[in-house]
């Protein structure tokens, strides 16, 4: 979301946002801010809504019994988008939000749910977003989630996302998620239950540095004949940072599952990968792969012969890896 | 160990063994029974030694403080063998044995440690062999371990091996282990600590059927620069059987680790694979792979076109897989 977009938003909807929120929106969201009648949004700033709009097909309402939103994507939705960025701009905030997404049969939607935390002191700040997705038959969701922390380098910023999804026959959920720096501790929990011939595709990109710690857990249960999951997690652990990857894929039907965890360690980074598979049906086909190591010397060498310094070469390789 | 071998043994050493022990030895051990001055052995039958011989380089002694053996493979050992089969021929036996192997610097030895249990009633019988290997610098051990149960099909036979190994710089431990049927419950624990540029190679082959359950755990810690582990476990789960595979490879140095778990499920077999990797050093390179599924239809079809029935084709593929 560029500064033009934010000007659009503030002019059109009269949004009052802190500069820090605007800066974070620049990072976590790619919306151009223009109203085309096909974009719903809710901007969350320090535990409250700074602005909201529904569309004909996408209805956003506050929950009555808990902080958060009910987002209803109605039948006939095609190619529309929902932006629900959440920003925390100061320390001392502990934000907890429950967002439920109800995706009607056959609907097709893109959901963008970035979260940014900016703090300038060592006091803790946390965002804990619990997102549940209910995908009806043959619906399609592209879910983009970008997490970032900015500000004081020794701050205690935590982002602990919980994602739970239920997929009906023929549904497709594609998740592209990333956390690319500035978050001191993160606990990422993703759960999905697939019925019928539904499909889940997850692409996760993670980068930790200094003394950051990150745990990412995936639990996927394949109950439907023809269901499938393809889970790829790529991560880089720099500095003294520590990452744990756990996945558990259970095949209870004629299904296919693939998980892949690739990690690059530099400096004194440490990574644990533990991807479990359980085949409880003769027709379940499950595969996983994991590789942890540093950047191959020959890759660095090749880029150095092109004129890059060693650190430039490393940065280029890591950028490519996390792209 | 064929019947000729057993005749040799009984004639030469005056061994008194039950027929059931002789039958089990046929399965778990490939020794021809001939004395060439280069083969040490101890045959364990229902918790006691039925016969023993040391050689010039390989000394077998009873432990004083626990059931079991101290086996010392002395400097200068080259191309010699130790056979230490253990047989249980009746229900109601709960055998616990501690065997320690001290392998001198530069020694080269093959150790064969099969275990067979034959029972004809439903009463439990168990063998729990705790084997510890201390490999001095540049020593080489080829360790062959075959486990089997025979007799009454609804018996409660358990074989719970514990293997622990410490490898010094330049040492190589090759383990070929198998459990190919007739064991109702098995808990297999293998641990190894590698110092210096030592290497561990493990090839495991498992088959379970009916309501058998099997858990195999591997913990490998790579402490030495240049150390490596290559762990391949292949298994088949038939009937209603259940298998769990866990491995944990920790790289604390400039090391390389590879683990692979391939499982075939037929009937209603169930398999869980959980291979963990932890890289705690920038120069650790760790990889794992796992695949669980049934036999590919095209493989069956190919063999059927050659005239095999479906079950013959399946048997041929499984035999090849576990070979």
Automatic annotation (TrEMBL), chains A, B:
Origin organism lineage: Bacteria, Bacillati, Bacillota, Clostridia, Eubacteriales
Protein name: SUF system FeS cluster assembly SufBD core domain-containing protein
InterPro entries tied to this protein: Fe-S_cluster_assembly_SufBD (IPR055346), SUF_FeS_clus_asmbl_SufBD_core (IPR000825), SUF_FeS_clus_asmbl_SufBD_sf (IPR037284)
Residue ranges constituting the SUF system FeS cluster assembly SufBD core domain according to the UniProt record: 103-321
Family of the protein in this entry: Belongs to the iron-sulfur cluster assembly SufBD family.
GO BP terms in the entry: iron-sulfur cluster assembly
Domain of life where this protein originates: Bacteria
